[in-house]
Structure prediction request, 449 residues.
Amino acid sequence: YWWLNANPKIWSFADIAVGEMQSYTLYNENGNKRRVFQNFLDAKSGDMIICYESNPVKQVVAFGQISAEHEDERIFLEKTEGLASPIDYSILRECPELEKMEFFVNPNGTLFKLTRGEYDFIVDMIREENPIASEQPTTKYGKAEFLDEVYMSESNYDVLCSLLENKSNVILQGAPGVGKTFAAKRLAYSIMGEVDENRIELIQFHQNYSYEDFIMGYKPVDEGFDLKYGIFHRFCLKAANYPDKDFFFIIDEINRGNLSKIFGELLMLIERDYRGHKATLAYNGLPFTVPKNLFIIGMMNTADRSLAMIDYALRRRFSFFEMEPAFDSEGFTKYQNSLSSETHEDMVVYKALYGERGTWVRPLSMWDNPIEVDGKTVKRFEYVGENGDTDRQHELHEALRSISSTIGKCEKAILKLNEGTSQHTLTKRRIEAFYIAVSLIERELREES
Prediction:
């Protein structure tokens, strides 16, 4: 068992992908034997390695093993696992069980021996922060299961999968309640081919979400501050450990956060063409990459005004898929028929409440007089306010109130400009034209009301 030091100013374990080989010479750049030279000679193929990065990182960051021993004055090691939550040097240094560890007694060198007890103790500490995912039997999940649960046509599902495959990032946008979050997880299941929660991370953005939460930042610890990895950084390391499996990072309310502030330099790395490329992170100055097997699914409420905050830099890195109410889908039809409920059918058929205004109005009152919709006679559902107004009347009253206020402001502006100089003539004409247009809209609304 071995402890291997890497100087991140020269090379880093982050530069090595899981399963990738790295050679290490028995002599330094000056041709001299490395310190503790005998350790390099004693290293055998299959020996396990604790991978440590020295200053400024000072953390155990990975597991490895010797893959070939002192061949042509070199040893070859393989990175077997990257740690999503590295272990700080200071934590290990305080453990009495490790006080006689060769590296702590004489830290000058590169490769140090570990006893079986020291190695097991360090592994136990690592596993407390980086547990191995339990190998529980998973349920198979594919296209058929997705279409059975999510009310979406097969052609739309194929389009959605193609969009995600094309850019590795997709945003599901639609009105509240159309099932964006529900569909996002099941889209991940169907692409993975199984229901595996260990390969999915679901978060929600909000206005206080920051780069320090998402990537890395200093967090208060006892009397000081420690550099801690954020949730996306850890998930990227986790995905990198299993390059042959797909991982999905799902972001709810993606438009509610300050995206440029949250993603930082990773705004470039999440782009499909830059997956696997490295960029230096601001906080630790070390290279970082977003693995190719990680897909990002965002959800966006199109009724939210913060939609305008999605800038072009982010838009071009994501594909967008519009999710609409699926009353006409085959899956929903089957579900509706299984209920055998006349009330439910009446509510669905009277979808004019949804289609015409784009906002679902919960039926609080039911009129007895039937109406005909789509060739079928149904009971009519309509929202009724506290003052007896129907939902349409309520909308008209609100619109008239707003327009009346606008007309009043226009009239005041015109009177003020009449007192001004000729240089305001063009502005006055524009306001008068706007005033006439708004007045016409008001007249039409009053006629309907």
About this structure: The first strand starts at residue 2 and ends at 6. The radius of gyration is 31 Å. The CA atoms of residues 259 and 310 lie 8 Å apart.
